[in-house]
Write a structure and sequence with these properties.
The structure holds 2 protein chains of 2 kinds.
Chain A lengths: L20 H16 L13 E3 L3 H5 L3 E6 L6 H11 L3 E3 L20 E3 L7 E3 L5 E3 L10 H21 L10 E5 L3 H4 L4 H7 L26 E3 L6 E5 L3 E5 L15 H9 L2 E2 L2 E2 L4 E6 L18 H6 L27 E6 L5 E5 L24 E6 L20 E3 L2 H12 L2 H6 L3 H17 L2 H8 L2 H6 L29 H5 L30 H26 L17 H22 L8 H32 L9 H32 L5 H27 L10 H29 L2 H10 L4 H9 L3 H28 L17 H28 L4 H8 L5 E9 L2 E9 L22 E9 L4
Parallel strand pairs in A: 1-9, 2-6, 6-7, 7-8, 10-13, 13-14, 14-16
Antiparallel strand pairs in A: 2-18, 3-4, 3-5, 4-20, 9-10, 11-12, 15-16, 15-17, 18-19, 19-20
Helix pairs in contact in A: 3-4, 9-22, 9-25, 11-19, 11-20, 11-24, 15-16, 15-17, 16-18, 17-18, 17-19, 19-20, 20-23, 20-24, 21-23, 24-25
Chain B lengths: L5 E4 L7 H9 L6 H4 L7 H7 L4 E2 L9 H19 L4 E6 L1 H12 L6 E7 L7 H21 L10 H17 L3 E6 L12 H11 L8 H5 L3 E3 L5 E8 L27 H21 L3
Parallel strand pairs in B: 1-2, 1-3, 3-4, 4-5, 5-7
Antiparallel strand pairs in B: 6-7
Helix pairs in contact in B: 4-5
Classes of the chains: A alpha/beta, B alpha/beta.
């Protein structure tokens, strides 16, 4: 095969995380796993078996090599590079004056170079006897087509190039491939994982460039064969070493312990001494998620790491036995003869905790406040998640335990990220997030300026009037369903009888003089005080809305109402809470609606729409309660009770009728909402008002909640009140910018404003980049606030400027009517699409500067560089890890001299860490 | 001579105010079903089925006895006008009985009422009202009073009732109205749970009671004696089975399940209990001629 044939190679960029096409396509799998992961346990097919490499022949060699990588299958140039290196022997500088392999990283950087070209002067790091994938095999979900595109194809290319470079031969026997699943494997319910790692029934496919056909197994990777029969792995290695890969990603039948019983029994069965389980002395333990990462002391109750280890009675040397005392970790918890390595990916950079101190020379962390050194000679915890996946910034640091080695360094990582985040076109390329921006900006502009109903409401808000940012005020807005000519006088309003009986009001409400059916005087426009019963009705509705929101939150997001306890436990009965909640809320809603209902003709159409929306939300909450209650009843139906007495009988009646009652309530509430308040509005206005307000509420909640729910370790090292205030303020400022900037630019902007805006979305980028690069977090924050304020004030700045320049100060869309009103709405959407990406990038950048949103920043920046994997050497005296990294993979596949393309042999490869662990003496 | 119409006068703070207002709002005609949600539970339709003419007045929720008496008078006059007879029978429960007495004495209605039957009426007031007054209740009432009309509570204090009794005795002894009282009591273990604190208060002050009113207060007096010696005897009856204040108008509560009179499942017990109460009212009505 000649290199010219390689010009049609297909390299895919890193996956798009900001609502990209593939992500949306895989969303149902992700949601399915998120919702029902614990129930759909796909580990049922498995029968684990221990694979042994501990042959006499292997031990006689005096050394044994294997390779580990994790978090693969993303940008395929990255995957290609790692595949190329992992399939090949590599060569490094020996210890000066000998042929010995080094056991510590050379202090001199020039000595760290790794060559992928055979050399007699250098010492060989031979290709591993097997390759181990540490989880998250491909992104976003490791399903079949993704594995073909992002794993198999780059491995094929790498194999072809190695073969051309005479570093691998079709005659070499295929070596075993192992893997454990991570969350991205479970997003496909580990179906793709099973295809990629389970021993195939048909034989492994032909070597490239031939395509595998019906006679061969799918997803074959050249140079490797698949042997696994379970999603967990146990390997018996030479010199009494064991490698165990646990599958602890997915919840099991046990609460808070992601280790199914079958898996637990398997591991117990293979390590017995005198009929009892005994953990291996020399153990490499691979998990899908790291025990220690981002400088945070691990969680002792982590269902993916600490708990499964405790369940298996394996030591947890990463957990301090005394609070915050790092001296009590590591070696201190091991017995003589023990040696232990924890291996994982999940976070996409390299970090080593414990193990020997590396001679890196400079401090790992700029802001390190951890005074205790955590080193060990028999224990290390290694995060090695750059086997292909996008870069997770290494700057996030929680100041509880400091790494021994970090790759790439804080500065490198930060400047790589700062290059991309502020460029909104990068964010736009990251997925359909711009579409969300379009929808938000369009909906707001449309809702504010087009439909009569919402337009009237917005135009009368005091801050809108004050700033003159609303739609033009109309002299009067008539009810949308009344004939304009109807001049009959408004009738007096008899209040809901309850309030006359209670003595709250004693007479009918008289509409003001001059009020006619066709042009009523709306209550808010009527200067007289509202009748007392209307005030009470409104308060009841607000109260019920608060109660509904709380109930919704408690029943969906907490187990305060439905505690999921066993129905055999009498305390599990949710009736006691549910019945009063339902009765109180239903009474509030019913009385509230009936109270305000007589005045409905004097509500503005928009308020009528809001009340309909309120009734829909109340109904949805009732249905959610019903669904959750039915779950409980289903479980309870298996409980037999001999108890009698009226309490039991009442409970039985409630059980039988409550689900129906909830449905009836839902239907009656929506029905009366529509019947009493929906009839004042044209359906078109009803729909547009509801869409307007729902989009607005979703944006408000989503953007405010973002730093709390997704922000990761945002402001982690600050005190809780500072965290709360900081997150809230960041969220609110981000919200203001997302909501108002596009709207104001279109609504109030003149041509001068627009020219300024076009300049201003680009101008601050270099300054912002340099602030972030230099870790000037408060500088960046100040710039964000100032920049945002200028963008918000831009219409007025434009106005002032055009007055001074004697240009026309009139906003472009100051007077526009009829269908043309759609034009600025669409334009606002277009501007919103851009501005949304701009603020998303800024928001992530500011949070990133304050230690937050690591994952989202990584996903947005989509940095394909800084890849690494580990080549392990086992010897009778211990274990050595050679961490092999490549800074830049971007040139792969580009043409070089003599009509050839740049391939793996052109990569600039280096060692970033060498760690040597020995059993505790 | 045709039977005189019966007026059922409800007590203070009618608990069915919400369903009542709702039915009114929905303009539903009165049926046997809707009557099951009435203050006098299903009693009106039951009596009507036996040929009586019955009406429900609707007085202020918690207005003063004077206001409620005025409203009752209005309603009685409407009944008299529509039926074309001279007099009515009044059956008053709880404060409804006091309202009727106020109406008869103060609103010049002695000639319009043939009989007054009171059930569970606090003729001598209720220590519960005194207790509320003394224990900070007045502040709460003051606040509530800004929005609602709740003067009626003060008229239920023992002091106010005794004052009215003294003021009215002369008139009541002389007027042609025939009075009878029904008094009920229940033990603590069968009392409707929310009434337990009130039951204890009344027991401590006045002994046996129905959870709000003592038997002594319900019984009123054996006879009324005017200044000139005219006497009017009050016929005193006991409620035929133990009942708390709400049971007296047909509302069953699960605590009644302890009552051995009515066996069976809960719903069956409730319905038997209601039947018992309805029959009592029928007996009363039949004895009124």
């Amino acid at each position: 095969m000649t290199s010219s044939d390689k010009s049609d190679r297909l390299f895919e960029p890193p996956v798009r995380w900001l609502l990209g096409k593939q992500l949306i396509g895989e969303l149902k799998g992700i949601l399915l796993y998120t919702a029902f992961g614990a129930k759909l346990d796909p580990r049922d097919w498995m029968t684990g078996e221990e694979v042994s490499f501990a042959t006499q022949e292997a031990e006689a060699k005096g050394e044994f090599w294997f390779d580990y990588l994790s978090d693969a299958g993303d940008g395929t140039k990255a995957m290609y590079s790692i595949a190329y290196l992992a399939l090949s022997n590599l060569w490094i500088n020996p210890v000066a004056g000998s042929k010995e392999l080094p056991k510590v990283l050379p202090a001199d950087e020039s000595q760290r170079k790794v060559s992928s070209i055979k050399s007699d002067q250098l010492s060989i790091l031979p290709r591993g006897e097997f390759l181990f994938f540490g989880g998250d095999t491909a992104y976003h979900a490791a399903e079949y087509m993704t594995l073909v595109n992002r794993i198999q194809r780059p491995f094929n290319y790498a194999y072809e190039d190695l073969r051309d470079n005479k570093l691998i031969s079709d005659d070499d026997p295929r070596r075993p491939l192992f893997g454990i699943p991570g969350n991205h494997d479970y997003y496909d319910q580990i179906d793709g994982f099973r295809r990629q790692f389970r021993r195939p029934i048909r034989k492994e496919g032909p070597l490239p460039p031939k395509h595998s056909g019906g006679n061969y197994a799918q997803l074959s990777i050249p140079g490797f064969r698949r042997v696994q029969e379970a999603s967990y792995v146990a390997l018996r290695l030479p010199f009494q070493w064991r490698l165990w890969g646990l599958d602890t990603e997915s919840a099991s039948d046990r609460l808070e312990l992601n280790l199914d019983r079958r898996q637990e029994n398997f591991f117990r069965s293979i390590s017995q001494e005198a009929g009892k389980f005994k953990a291996p002395e020399k153990l490499i333990l691979a998990t899908c998620s790291p025990s220690t990462v981002f400088g945070k002391i691990p969680d002792a109750d982590d269902p993916k790491v600490a708990r499964p280890m405790k369940a298996l009675k394996i030591e947890t040397p990463f957990l301090p036995t005394a609070p915050s005392n790092l001296q009590s970790t590591g070696d201190a918890q091991l017995d003589a003869g023990q040696c232990r390595l924890d291996l994982s990916g999940d976070v996409h950079h390299y970090a080593r905790y414990w193990g020997p101190k590396a001679p890196t020379g400079s401090a790992i962390r700029k802001h390190n406040k951890v005074k205790q050194e955590a080193t060990a000679s028999s224990y290390a915890s290694v995060v090695s998640g750059s086997g292909g996946a996008f870069h997770h910034p290494s700057t996030t640091y929680d100041n509880e335990i400091c790494e021994q080695v970090l790759y790439p360094s804080e500065n490198v990582s930060r400047s790589a990220v700062s290059e991309t985040l502020f460029k909104f076109w990068n964010v736009m390329a990251g997925g359909y997030v711009w579409l969300a921006g379009f929808i938000l900006a369009f909906t707001i502009y449309f809702g504010v300026t087009v439909p009569k109903s919402s337009r009237q409401f917005i135009a009368n808000l005091s801050f809108v009037k004050l700033l003159e940012i609303g739609p033009p005020l109309e002299s009067s807005i008539n009810p949308t369903i009344v004939q304009p000519g109807n001049t009959a006088e408004c009738k007096s309003v008899p209040p809901f009888a309850l309030w006359t009986k209670l003595g709250v009001v004693d007479r009918d409400w008289q509409p003001p003089a001059g009020c006619t059916i066709a042009s009523p005087v709306y209550i808010f426009a009527d200067p007289r005080p509202w009748p007392l019963d209307l005030k009470i009705g409104q308060s009841l509705l607000w109260l019920s809305l608060a109660a509904i929101l709380i109930t919704f939150y408690l029943s969906v997001f907490t187990n305060k109402i439905f505690n999921d306890a066993s129905p055999f436990d009498t305390r599990s009965n949710p009736d006691k809470k549910l019945l009063p909640i339902i009765l109180v809320i239903a009474s509030l809603v019913i009385v509230g609606l009936l109270t305000i209902q007589p005045y409905r003709n004097y509500f503005t159409p928009f308020v009528s729409s809001l009340i309909v929306l309120f009734s829909i939300f109340a109904a949805i909450t009732a249905i959610i309660l019903d669904v959750r209650y039915s779950d409980y009843l289903f479980k309870k139906s298996f409980v037999q009770t001999d108890e009698e007495g009226w309490r039991v009988q009442i409970t039985r009646i409630v059980d039988d009728y409550l689900p129906w009652l909830l449905w009836v309530i839902a239907i009656v509430v929506v029905g009366s909402g529509l019947w009493f308040f929906g009839k004042n509005n044209l359906p078109a206005y009803l729909v547009s008002d509801i869409v307007f307000i729902v989009v607005l509420i979703a944006a408000v909640i989503g953007i405010i909640v973002l730093p709390f729910k997704v922000g990761g370790d945002l402001l982690y090292t600050s005190s809780k009140p500072v965290q709360f205030v900081g997150k809230s303020l960041i969220g609110i400022w981000h919200l203001l910018l997302q909501l108002f900037v596009p709207y104001l630019l279109i609504r109030n902007g003149n041509y001068v404003t627009w020219i300024l805006a076009a300049l201003l979305i680009l101008l601050p980028i270099p300054l912002a980049q340099s602030l972030l690069k230099n870790d000037s977090r408060f500088g960046l924050l100040t710039l964000w606030i100032g920049y945002g304020a200028v963008m918000l004030a831009l219409p007025w700045i434009g106005l002032w400027l055009s007055n001074n320049l004697q240009l026309s100060p009139i906003p472009v869309f100051s007077s526009i009517g009829g269908w043309r009103r759609l034009v600025p709405s669409i334009l606002s959407g277009v501007v919103g699409a851009v501005i949304c990406c701009l603020w998303t990038g800024w928001y992530f950048a500011v949070c990133f500067a304050f230690n937050g949103h690591n994952n989202e920043v990584g996903g947005t920046a989509r940095i394909e560089n800084y890849k690494e994997f580990i080549r392990f050497r086992l010897t009778p005296d211990g274990l050595t890890g050679y961490v092999i990294a490549v800074d830049d993979v971007s040139k792969i596949g580009e043409p070089k001299a003599e009509g050839k393309l740049l391939d793996g042999s052109d990569l600039n490869v280096k060692l970033i860490d060498i760690f040597h662990l020995v059993p505790k003496p | 001579m045709p039977r005189l119409p019966i007026v059922l006068a409800h007590g203070i703070a009618r608990f069915d105010i919400l369903t009542e207002s709702l039915l009114e709002k929905l303009h539903l005609p009165e049926t046997q079903l809707s009557d099951r949600f009435e203050y006098f539970k299903g009693i009106k339709t039951h009596l009507e089925a036996h040929g009586f003419t019955v009406s429900h007045p609707n007085q202020s929720f918690a207005g003063s006895a004077d206001l409620r008496a005025e409203q009752l008078k209005k309603r009685v006059n409407e009944v008299l006008t529509s039926t074309g007879v001279e007099k009515v029978h009044i059956i008053g429960h709880s404060m409804g009985g006091l309202d009727a007495r106020h109406m008869i004495v103060d609103k010049d209605m002695a000639d319009r009422v043939a009989t007054l039957t009171t059930i569970g009426t606090p003729h001598h007031g209720s220590p519960v009202a005194d207790h509320l007054e003394k224990n900070g209740g007045s502040l709460l009432l003051k606040i509530l009073g800004k929005v609602l009309v709740i003067d009626g509570l003060a008229d239920l204090r023992t002091e106010s009732c005794e004052a009215f009794n003294r003021r009215a005795e002369n008139d009541e002894a002389k007027n042609p109205v025939r009075y009878q009282t029904y008094s009920a009591a229940e033990n603590l273990n069968a009392i409707f749970a929310p009434l337990i604190p009130a039951w204890i208060i009344v027991r401590d002050h006045e002994g046996r009671n129905d959870g709000l009113v003592s038997v002594r207060s319900q019984q009123w007096a054996r006879e009324l004696i005017a200044n000139d010696g005219t006497r009017n005897t009050i016929v005193q009856h006991d409620f035929p089975f133990p009942a708390d204040h709400l049971n007296e108008v047909g509302w069953w509560d699960p605590e009644e399940a302890i009552n051995p009179l009515f066996g069976g499942g809960l719903l069956k017990q409730a319905s038997k209990f209601e039947d018992g109460v309805k029959d009592l009212y029928l007996q009363i009505a039949q004895g009124l001629e």
